[in-house]
Amino acid sequence: MIERLAIDALGTQADGIGRGPGGLAFVPFSLPGETLDIERDGSRAAIERIVTASPERREPPCPHFGQCGGCELQHASEDLYRAFKRDVVSEAFRREGVSAEIGDLVPCPPASRRRAVFSAVRADTRVLFGFHEPASHRISQIETCLVVTPVIAKRLPLFRKLATLLIDRKRELRMTVTETLSGFDVAVDDAAKLTPALRQQAVKLALDPSIARLSVSGETIVEARSPQVTIDGLPVALPPGAFLQAVPAAEEEMARVALGHLAGLKSVADLFCGVGAFALRMARTQAVHAVEFDAPALAALDGARRGVSGLKPVTLERRDLIRRPVTAKELEKFGGVLFDPPRAGAEAQCVELAKSKVQRIAAVSCNPPTLARDATILIAGGYRLLSVTPIDQFLWSHHVEAVALFER
Ligand SMILES: C[S@@+](CC[C@H](N)C(=O)[O-])C[C@H]1O[C@@H](n2cnc3c(N)ncnc32)[C@H](O)[C@@H]1O
């Protein structure tokens, strides 16, 4: 049944929210101020017709927009888009009762994402390769993508071919593609069992000159060249499966804000350090203790810092920071701490930081609600929250990075 609805606001997942005769409705691809005819499925609804469009509505640049769930906000003006992302961050802090000064969004240019995770499924005789449809298990086939780097976009047919070869009968395949200086690092998960014949065909495809490495279910199948990235000009050999910030410009901006806050401190810790996006930069001027659970990532960081002279001392520690956070006592050695945890945040670590004497903390996060929760722990321990900078790394999606600066 068609229902008429006015959209009042954008929710944190980028859906328009309105209340119609059928109750509250969440409507993807709608904007505040619009009047719509919708068809609902419970509280979720699809636009049947836009009765009155918002003046902030614009033509989405990608032909797949609306079908492909990778992007949620191409139809909003630049001003509305930036305000939305900033609001996602401020709303997270508001919900935790933390008053925070939220800066303007640092924007993300199109065609800049060097890492993307594609999905593929069998659909009858075809294989669909692309991203999930909005809030769905179905995959929307894509021919182009305006978010990834042009080099990745150009080679979509090659990635589709690989996915079509390696796909399992029943499972959805995932393919992480990273553009590195030495070629693509392609990691396939949930693939079909690699029979000798399948392996041979995969090797043949992976010998394409654009591919540096192909790994399937964690096993390296072909490594023509070691995938290399640079961090602040230092070469880093990327291990298969290691975390890497998706957009180099966003990584630089996060580092600029976080390192600026910790500047002048002689000794700092980088917790959840990965391959060293922040540790290697800090080591130019400060002694760094870098802590991470993933051993190959730590080894990559170790290799990178050994390759250069003139860095300050870097010590490495493999540690599960969720189960065994660095204690307040251990933190006595550091004037400053940077932490950049997975989406779940750094709750246990913040409990220790709250008891510590660490002077300055820079918290980097891809998940504002857990960042805001962690902030409450630090504030209860006597820290002042000085600023929060939202940084766009996930263009046209509802996801946003933020860097929060604390001091005691
Ligand atoms: C958001 S990434 C940040 C990595 C790095 N700071 C960067 O910018 O590239 C989070 C990192 O936390 C690591 N990690 C996940 N769980 C962990 C745990 N329990 N203990 C320590 N590190 C963990 C991951 O391996 C990953 O490298």
From TrEMBL:
<feature type="active site" description="Nucleophile">
    <location>
        <position position="366"/>
    </location>
</feature>
<dbReference type="InterPro" id="IPR029063">
    <property type="entry name" value="SAM-dependent_MTases_sf"/>
</dbReference>
<comment type="similarity">
    <text>Belongs to the class I-like SAM-binding methyltransferase superfamily. RNA M5U methyltransferase family.</text>
</comment>
<dbReference type="InterPro" id="IPR012340">
    <property type="entry name" value="NA-bd_OB-fold"/>
</dbReference>
<feature type="binding site">
    <location>
        <position position="340"/>
    </location>
    <ligand>
        <name>S-adenosyl-L-methionine</name>
    </ligand>
</feature>
<feature type="binding site">
    <location>
        <position position="272"/>
    </location>
    <ligand>
        <name>S-adenosyl-L-methionine</name>
    </ligand>
</feature>
<dbReference type="GO" id="GO:0051539">
    <property type="term" value="F:4 iron, 4 sulfur cluster binding"/>
</dbReference>
<keyword id="KW-0004">4Fe-4S</keyword>
<keyword id="KW-0408">Iron</keyword>
<dbReference type="GO" id="GO:0070475">
    <property type="term" value="P:rRNA base methylation"/>
</dbReference>
<dbReference type="InterPro" id="IPR010280">
    <property type="entry name" value="U5_MeTrfase_fam"/>
</dbReference>
<dbReference type="GO" id="GO:0070041">
    <property type="term" value="F:rRNA (uridine-C5-)-methyltransferase activity"/>
</dbReference>
<dbReference type="InterPro" id="IPR030390">
    <property type="entry name" value="MeTrfase_TrmA_AS"/>
</dbReference>
<dbReference type="Pfam" id="PF05958">
    <property type="entry name" value="tRNA_U5-meth_tr"/>
</dbReference>
<protein>
    <submittedName>
        <fullName>23S rRNA (Uracil1939-C5)-methyltransferase</fullName>
        <ecNumber>2.1.1.190</ecNumber>
    </submittedName>
</protein>
<feature type="active site">
    <location>
        <position position="366"/>
    </location>
</feature>
<feature type="binding site">
    <location>
        <position position="292"/>
    </location>
    <ligand>
        <name>S-adenosyl-L-methionine</name>
    </ligand>
</feature>
<keyword id="KW-0808">Transferase</keyword>
<keyword id="KW-0479">Metal-binding</keyword>
<keyword id="KW-0489">Methyltransferase</keyword>
<keyword id="KW-0949">S-adenosyl-L-methionine</keyword>
<keyword id="KW-0411">Iron-sulfur</keyword>
<feature type="binding site">
    <location>
        <position position="245"/>
    </location>
    <ligand>
        <name>S-adenosyl-L-methionine</name>
    </ligand>
</feature>
